[in-house]
Design a protein that fits this description.
Helix 7 runs antiparallel to helix 8. The chain is an alpha/beta fold. Helix content is about 25%, strand content about 20%.
């Protein structure tokens, strides 16, 4: 790839998109802009937060420390999903500002506190029980969300996750992105488009997902039309990425039940008639995230390994050597890391009788649950969220050739894209964007992977 620096780079993260989706039949808007795309290979594990941080830093999870979309605090024995703020992270939309580049990021994780020139991320006002009192978003600059709300209404959080998740959230985000371009004219803008994630998790990579590609293509096309009408279109490169593709799954796996049966996991009364995991008194606990589970141990490593590797659906149990080989050897990672078989995924349940489920199990409560719960995409018989894991049709986390993301360069200032058949490594994306903007010398991405322009 060769080419001179672009004046502006827009990064569209259309999660769940794969190369065979970008065709004139399925996605005519994308296909017309990106004459050719190739596969994008995520770093292991292919999960939301690790994938996003890798794309924006050029580092593997073993380097940047985001090993899952949740965190286990060993000192306090607490698990938290989705709750981090910026916490010292320096992603390209932050580091590029040091080179005088104006930057923006919309709806990527851990944006609260970013110094990007323009940023928006959900931050609803909740009570102590995580019940939403009022919809809100954190934005930079202050007041930008208020302006977006006045024009487009509140961000539709109920369409961003849960049983009603759908295209309305992607439409709002892309409308906000067009407004950000018009008002702030950033040189670099990262935009997360979530729509395909819902179809992929509910149904897997089949016809329902392929149908949803057409919906997201239409929405992206409207955003691209707004870009084309902008004065800087001639100097624009659009960088298309996707964090992962999906596997068809049929086998839910319950590592915490196995640890409980082995006498390593303890439970306590949740105060409302259910069983809560007792993290303080447990010797082992599995923090699950799709097809990957981090197992944290106080004792009983041999017993835990024996109990887990025999589970139907477990492909690998990674120890220290295995974590190093996969690039996930970081203190934040579990003492053991489980990898599911391609047709399996991990659910956090530790109870055996539905009547013993904790009070939050049937709620859409992404902060209370100590594991990612895709059953929240389905209405339940006993509450808002389903307790039937057999409904889940797709998952991700493994890194397999059939479930890679997509990479493409388009727009009037775009250089030629990759011409070989090898998948682009996700760790090359940040260095490539820095090269596109002509700021490689000023911005250290800390990546061992070179720009694709070199």
């Amino acid at each position: 790839m060769t080419g001179s620096p672009a004046g502006r780079v827009v990064v569209l993260d259309v999660v769940g998109l794969q190369p065979d989706h970008v065709t004139a039949d399925l996605a005519p808007e994308l296909a017309s802009l990106f004459g050719g795309t190739t596969a994008l290979r995520p770093a292991f594990p292919a999960l939301t937060v690790p994938a996003q941080t890798t794309l924006a830093t050029g580092q593997s999870p073993g380097e940047h420390g985001d090993v899952a979309s949740g965190e286990y605090d060993r000192a306090t024995d607490e698990v938290a999903f989705w709750e981090r703020d910026r916490d010292g992270r320096n992603r390209l939309w932050e580091t590029a500002r040091e080179a005088g580049t104006t930057t923006g990021a919309l709806f990527f994780q851990h944006l609260i506190g970013t110094d990007a020139d323009v940023a928006v991320t959900p931050s609803p006002i909740e009570d102590e029980d995580n019940n939403m009192l009022e919809m809100d978003c954190w934005s930079n600059p202050d007041g930008f969300y208020d302006d977006l709300r006045e024009e487009f209404g509140h961000f539709p959080l109920h369409n961003y996750w849960g049983p009603a998740a759908g295209e309305a959230s992607s439409e709002w985000i892309l409308d906000a992105a067009a407004t950000a371009v018009d008002r702030f004219d950033p040189d670099l803008l990262w935009v997360y488009v979530p729509h395909l994630d819902y179809a992929g998790l509910r149904h897997g990579p089949g016809e329902e997902l392929r149908s949803a590609v057409g919906e997201v293509d239409r929405l992206v096309g409207e955003f691209l039309d707004a870009l084309r009408a902008d004065d800087r279109w001639d100097e624009t490169v659009v960088n298309l990425v996707s964090e992962y593709g999906f596997h068809d799954v049929e086998t839910p796996v319950f590592p915490n039940r196995a640890l409980r049966e082995a006498g390593l996991l303890s439970v306590t009364d949740d105060g409302e008639g259910g069983e809560e995991v007792d993290l303080v008194d447990s010797d082992a606990f599995a923090m699950v995230d799709h097809q990957v589970a981090h197992v944290y141990l106080d004792d009983g490593v041999d017993e835990a390994r024996e109990a887990l590797r025999g589970l139907d659906g477990v492909d690998e149990v990674l120890d220290e050597d295995g974590k190093a080989e996969r690039g996930v050897d970081h203190p934040n990672a579990g003492d053991l890391v489980l990898v599911a078989e391609p047709t399996a995924w991990f659910q956090y349940y530790w109870w055996f009788d539905r009547g013993d489920a904790p009070y939050y199990a049937t709620d859409m409560d992404i902060h209370a649950k100590p594991g990612f719960d895709p059953c929240e995409l389905f209405f339940g018989d006993e509450g808002l969220a389903s307790l039937d894991p057999t409904k889940v049709g797709g998952s991700h986390g493994r890194v397999d050739d059939e479930a890679l993301g997509v990479y493409g360069l388009g727009g009037p200032a775009a250089p030629d894209g990759p011409t070989d058949d090898d998948a682009v490594d996700a760790r090359s994306v940040a260095p490539t964007i820095a090269s596109l903007l002509g700021i490689s010398d000023e911005v250290a991405t800390s990546s061992d992977y070179p720009s694709l322009l070199e």
